[in-house]
């Protein structure tokens, strides 16, 4: 079993972006992460490193435009693997296995992840973490499609300030949190990668950070900060949290009375919301 004190130490050392990713993984939810457009590329690079380095998960980046088709989107979220499971169906599964499902909306166009023979050698599998750059620019038909369980979907958008990043209303209903990252807060994983590249012989021509431009994503860490067991331990602890009746009544008033909502939300920012959710997650620890 994961050490509880060790988990808390890890959580307290996370950056704002890493914390947002952890909260989504623990709750099996997805999110919007935005930053000023000028820093969007750096944000995407940082999210890739968080997926592979902090959590040891495969990551795929989808660059969305108004011309992005369903087939383009489906093929972009697949990663190559040496040995795939012996199945020939769609890696996106069915509507019943989806986070983004709703009656009347057809699932994403099916993409075969294994070889025609079913052996799966050299086939593809869906990435654990998908970073959709400029998802708000994609056609509505792409934004409302289904996605499988047990993975993290991040819509990376350009926005000058918090609260300005939006996707289609359907997808908004299924996103857990929206976080605006101030570039002045830095990109710690990206900075570490730059420092490592500076000492390499090829640093002047091909930084490790340039690889994603050529289609290669950062390698998955063999010793990530948060392993699957750590995330599962936090998720289990959060499910065991018991809310006092006074707190529950307070929350119900918050959701039903306009005056209460206006009073509570006055001066509340994204950091406060994240702290409240983190408190629920770490309460048993």
TrEMBL record:
<dbReference type="InterPro" id="IPR052041">
    <property type="entry name" value="Nucleic_acid_metab_PIN/TRAM"/>
</dbReference>
<protein>
    <submittedName>
        <fullName>Uncharacterized protein</fullName>
    </submittedName>
</protein>
């Amino acid at each position: 079993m994961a050490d509880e004190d060790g988990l808390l130490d890890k959580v307290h050392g996370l950056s704002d972006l890493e914390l947002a990713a952890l909260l989504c993984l623990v709750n099996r939810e997805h999110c919007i992460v935005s930053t000023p457009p000028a820093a969007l590329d750096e944000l995407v690079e940082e999210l890739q490193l968080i997926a592979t380095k902090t959590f040891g998960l495969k990551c795929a980046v989808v660059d969305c435009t108004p011309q992005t088709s369903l087939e383009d989107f489906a093929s972009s979220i697949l990663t190559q693997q040496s040995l795939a499971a012996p199945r020939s169906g769609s890696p996106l599964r069915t509507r019943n296995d989806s986070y983004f499902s709703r009656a009347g909306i057809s699932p994403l166009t099916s993409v075969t992840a294994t070889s025609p023979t079913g052996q799966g050698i050299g086939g593809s599998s869906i990435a654990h973490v998908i970073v959709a750059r400029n998802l708000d620019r994609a056609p509505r038909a792409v934004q409302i499609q289904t996605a499988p369980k047990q993975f993290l979907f991040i819509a990376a958008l350009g926005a000058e300030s918090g609260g300005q990043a939006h996707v289609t209303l359907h997808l908004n209903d299924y996103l857990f949190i929206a976080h605006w990252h101030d570039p002045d807060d830095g990109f710690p994983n990206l900075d570490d990668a730059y420092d490592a590249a500076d000492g390499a012989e090829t640093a002047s021509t091909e930084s490790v950070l340039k690889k994603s431009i050529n289609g290669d994503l950062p390698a998955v860490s063999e010793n990530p900060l948060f392993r699957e067991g750590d995330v599962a331990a936090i998720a289990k602890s959060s499910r065991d949290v018991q809310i006092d009746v006074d707190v529950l009544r307070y929350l119900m008033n918050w959701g039903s009375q306009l005056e209460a909502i206006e009073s509570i939300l006055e001066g509340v920012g994204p950091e406060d919301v994240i702290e409240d959710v983190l408190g629920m997650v770490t309460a048993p620890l």
